Amino acid sequence: MALEKQYLKAFVRGFFVTVSVTVTFLDQVACVARVEGASMQPSLNPQWSLSCDIVLLNHWKIRNYEVHRGDIVSLV
Q: pLDDT band at 13, cuts 50/70/90?
């Protein structure tokens, strides 16, 4: 019984650490987004199909004002 309690405690601790790190990463560093529709053609979704493109949105570049001509910027 004590061993099961110890495993459960370790699992819960690991779960909360993982969730905290993941939320911090997605909020501060980068996040993943789907691009659907024809609004970004031909750069993204070059052909009309049922699939969509997946992009990584870099939060650090915008915080440091490192936006250059040709970059794609996502606004919320």
A: very high
> Do 57 and 32 meet the contact criterion of CB atoms below 8 Å apart?
yes
pLDDT digits (tens, 9 = 90+) for 53-75: 888 888 888 777 888 888 777 77
- Domain residue ranges in the chain: 1-35
Pair 58, 30: CB distance under 8 Å: yes
Residue whose token pair is 């053609």: 41
The tokens for 31 are 């996040």
The closest alpha carbon to 35, from 45, 43, 27, belongs to 45
Please say whether the beta carbons of 62 and 71 come within 8 A. Answer: no
Beta pairing class for 30-35 and 53-58: antiparallel
